[in-house]
């Protein structure tokens, strides 16, 4: 039985070796403790407290130096991969040209031999191979069928069709030339496959390869044209650039025990941790805890419903609620660029704003973003379990 042949059931193994075998094979899971989580405001690249901290548009915190180094490295890798793709495409084109030239030479040589009254397939090498024998048998069968058909269906003079007028059709000529090249390519491949292969696979001339450029192994991958955030998941990646980084402006308070500055919320003066779920205000960069954002920044539905500005315009009455930063009173309301231009500069400047679409793509849009933070060590405080999938067992 199969279970008696596994590593975990052999009598020669000790208990420690059985535990190692169980860890190496099968699916394993482990619960992360508090020591396995990064502290808040830690860089996602160097894993240390972020110096001159910046954040991407999805709330991942980095050191400015680490982010710039990663962006430059990714851009260099993108350029290198682009050159590799160009070289591979050029090499594939050259290989195709060589094959076309070889097929053309083979077709011309066979045509010249046929015109001289020689049959290409009558040489002893071809006739001695299994492919040559099989093709000779197919020709004999085809000749017998043609002779039987001609003898069984005699044609009279009245039934014979008349002579057709000769017309030079360019498409027909191209089709015939393509058929000749296809036949020549098939003959070349048959000759190569019919040759004796040496069993010395270690020689450089016949060393087996992985066939990475073959059609069977050509797995198309999504080409990366812009730098991707290194802290994003593999199944949900998002791009980031130098222009889209938001500089974080933390408020610091002196800790009474350690006598060191601690990054804290400017409203409640409490230290920012993974449990406080900090929120970033764009584009000013101030960071507040979740409770203070809900209490001071986001307008409540009760206040909006009962307190209406009688001096406001009709358009402003139905617009989105105004969000202001708690520290600097910066406007955090996410509006369309065309609406903002029309509101401040008039409708006659809409065409001018449309010409700046490319520059506005890298512009930081205002709003509130939840900063990415890891768990707290408690059961409901973030992802606290990792899994590893492997082979079920070893025989």
Automatic annotation (TrEMBL):
Residues 149-158 have a biased composition (Polar residues). It is found in: Nucleus. Residues 75-104 form a coiled coil. Residues 265-329 form the RING-type domain. GO terms for cellular component: nucleus. InterPro entries: NOSIP, Znf-NOSIP, Znf-RING_euk, Znf_C2H2_type, Znf_RING, Znf_RING/FYVE/PHD, Znf_RING_CS. The keyword Metal-binding applies. Pfam families: zf-NOSIP, zf-RING_UBOX. This is RING-type domain-containing protein.
């Amino acid at each position: 039985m199969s279970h008696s042949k596994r590593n975990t059931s052999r009598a020669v193994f000790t208990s420690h070796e059985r535990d190692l075998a169980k860890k190496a094979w099968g699916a394993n899971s482990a619960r992360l403790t508090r020591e396995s989580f990064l502290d808040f405001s830690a860089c996602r690249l160097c894993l240390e407290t972020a110096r001159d901290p910046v954040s991407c548009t999805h709330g991942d915190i980095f050191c400015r130096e680490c982010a710039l180094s990663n962006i430059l490295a990714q851009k260099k890798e993108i350029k290198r991969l682009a050159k590799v793709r160009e070289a591979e495409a050029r090499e594939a084109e050259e290989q195709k040209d060589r094959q076309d030239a070889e097929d053309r030479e083979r077709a011309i040589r066979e045509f010249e031999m046929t015109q001289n009254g020689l049959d290409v397939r009558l040489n002893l090498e071809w006739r001695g191979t299994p492919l040559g024998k099989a093709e000779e048998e197919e020709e004999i069968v085809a000749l017998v069928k043609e002779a039987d058909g001609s003898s069984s269906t005699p044609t009279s003079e009245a039934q014979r069709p008349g002579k057709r007028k000769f017309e030079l059709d360019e498409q027909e000529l191209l089709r015939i030339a393509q058929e000749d090249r296809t036949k020549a390519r098939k003959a070349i491949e048959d000759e190569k496959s019919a040759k004796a292969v040496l069993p010395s696979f270690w020689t450089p001339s016949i060393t087996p390869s992985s066939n990475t450029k073959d059609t069977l192994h050509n797995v198309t991958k999504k080409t990366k044209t812009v730098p991707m955030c290194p802290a994003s998941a593999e199944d949900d990646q998002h791009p980031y650039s130098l222009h889209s980084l938001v500089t974080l402006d933390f408020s610091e308070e002196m800790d009474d025990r350690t006598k060191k500055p601690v990054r804290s919320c400017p409203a409640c003066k409490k230290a920012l941790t993974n449990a406080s779920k900090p929120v970033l205000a764009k584009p000013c960069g101030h960071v507040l805890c979740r409770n203070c954002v809900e209490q001071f920044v986001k307008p409540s539905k009760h206040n909006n419903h009962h307190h209406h500005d009688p001096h406001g315009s009709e358009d402003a009455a139905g617009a989105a609620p105004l969000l202001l930063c708690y520290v600097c009173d910066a406007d955090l309301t996410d509006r369309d660029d065309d609406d903002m231009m029309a509101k401040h500069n008039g409708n006659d400047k809409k065409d001018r704003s449309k010409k700046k679409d490319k520059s506005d793509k890298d512009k930081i849009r205002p709003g509130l973003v939840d900063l990415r933070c890891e768990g707290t060590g408690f059961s409901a405080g973030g992802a606290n379990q990792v899994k590893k999938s492997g082979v079920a067992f070893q025989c």
